[in-house]
Amino acid sequence: MKITILGSGTSTGVPEIGCKCPVCTSSDPRDNRLRCSGLIETEGLRILIDCGPDFREQMIRLNDFKPLDGVLITHEHYDHVGGLDDLRPFCRFRDVPVYAEQYTAERLRQRIPYCFAEHLYPGVPRITLEEIVPGSPFIIGNPEGNKVEVTPLRVMHGKLPILGYRIGKMAWITDMLTMPGAEYDLLQGLDVLVMNALRPQPHNTHQNLKEALDNAQRIGAGETYFIHMSHHMGLHADAERLLPPHVHFAYDGMRISL
């Protein structure tokens, strides 16, 4: 399995518009963070996790134009779904299935109804909404006969229920503040955990750094990579040195193999 961090930043991205702090003016490319997204390549499949407003730029940076076999949506917020229309080039290969729980799927149909109309006009992305249920594994496959099992996980983004995902020995969790106790059982035996850590200071809907470190220790993955950071986390080079062994700050373009 190969995991590419397409975006490691929070909803405003880094640099944040108008900010002149040391992070937002840093020349270290690891301090330039697009909105949060990842590409998972495993078992002959390519799976996108979230498709935010920076998706087009992320794909241009990646410079690896191949079919997408599925898109996993964690929740409805714009920084995680604002790029769905930019899936259009990938529909030249074939229709792209988008997986989301019912609540999120209903809101996507309301926001971009032209993508899900009965009669699509030319140029509209050919994407299908597949509704999934937390705790119920499902299969993503492709015409070549490749397939992989995905398990959606319930996590809480403040008071909003959203999804994380486990694929094999990797799990991706973003925008979490808390998680029901039973979900920890679904995260045993991970080699890699990708999880959100917004900033050192507390926040009412996201884990801060201490909460993320505590959860990383509780889950006990072989390696943990933090995503969804704001500029308040500090310079990558400085902040990274403060982390314990086997815990890392991810950065845009990072590739993780397991």
TrEMBL record:
InterPro entries: Metallo-B-lactamas (IPR001279), RibonucZ/Hydroxyglut_hydro (IPR036866). SUPFAM superfamilies: Metallo-hydrolase/oxidoreductase. Coiled coil: none annotated. Residues 34-228 form the Metallo-beta-lactamase domain. It holds the Pfam family Lactamase_B_2. This is Metallo-beta-lactamase domain-containing protein. It comes from Phocaeicola dorei CL02T12C06. The lineage of its organism: Bacteria, Pseudomonadati, Bacteroidota, Bacteroidia, Bacteroidales.
